[in-house]
Amino acid sequence: MKIVNDKTNIDFISVSRRRVTAAISVILVVVSLISIATRGLELGIDFTGGVLIEVGYPGDADLNKIRQILAQAGYPDAQVQSFGSADDVMMRLPPQSEGTDSSAIRDSIRDALAADEPAVELRRVEFVGPQVGEELTEQGSLAMIFTLLMIFAYVMFRFQWRFAAGGVLALAHDVIITVGFFSVFRFSFDLSVLAAVLAVAGYSLNDTVVTFDRIRENFIQLRGTEPEEGINISINEMLSRTIITGLTTLIVLIALFLLGGESVSGFSLALIVGIVVGTYSSVYIASSTALVLGVSAKDLLPPVHDSSEIDELP
């Protein structure tokens, strides 16, 4: 299967291209960081704690009326919103005090809603204590930091520290922009989205390592070629593979986002954003960073031993 010609000669990392792509990346990262720092994330119940209840109505649900019913039942801070279709409703209650019986909360809300509409159907109830939410937030952050450190060590061991710096910078770039996307557009950030962010890191790393492998091969085979030219040749040779991999993955994720329902929408959306950004960063961030740091063919060649030293060995 061919998407592009076998022999393309696109100039991906010339000085002018690097300046443009660096400016775009800096703007996206800064906007993401500012949004995360000022607006924060719309943390899901997994992190904040609380009660999540999903109900189904026989017809279109009146959200304002449901809010009034919950307020009269003793839950004035409940968040009520449509969930998929107009007859599906999701309610979020803030964290409850320790020792609160989740069954009692479920029953009281069901009875209050059933008094107004007997045909209402209780479909899902999730209860997360505030302590669990704090632990998940801390462990999720530590998992991300540990992932970046291990990736740096792996790439440095397999290639060279300049490539490792480029790979980690690309991963940080992908993670920040993906999380920033959820902050800017106020999408719910829960454990499934966090899992998707970690999956994005794995996808981006795989794409970056494959590109680095081809760069290393060409540096050795095309001795005497300037590093910029060698990297450009490598990226062009990998272009068809990159496009096919990205498109086939995106097709599946878009179908999952559109047809998979609310439970997987956040996960698939995070992967869609992350794969687009990750494909971009493996070309324009990881490789360009290694080039800016001065990577060359001799950095990847095995050390040459002096024959005089070998002769002196016993």
Report on this structure.
- By secondary structure, the chain is α+β, with helices and mostly antiparallel strands.
- The protein folds into 2 domains: 15-42 and 133-299, Multidrug efflux transporter AcrB transmembrane domain (Multidrug efflux transporter AcrB transmembrane fold, Up-down Bundle); 50-128, Alpha-Beta Plaits (2-Layer Sandwich).
- Helices cover 66% and strands 11% of the residues.
- The strands form 2 sheets. The protein has a 4-stranded antiparallel β-sheet. A two-stranded parallel sheet has the order 1-6.
- Helix 1 (15-38) packs across helix 6 (161-184), helix 6 (161-184) packs antiparallel against helix 10 (262-292) and helix 7 (191-221) packs parallel to helix 10.
- The chain is elongated.
- Mean pLDDT is 80; it is low at 305-311.
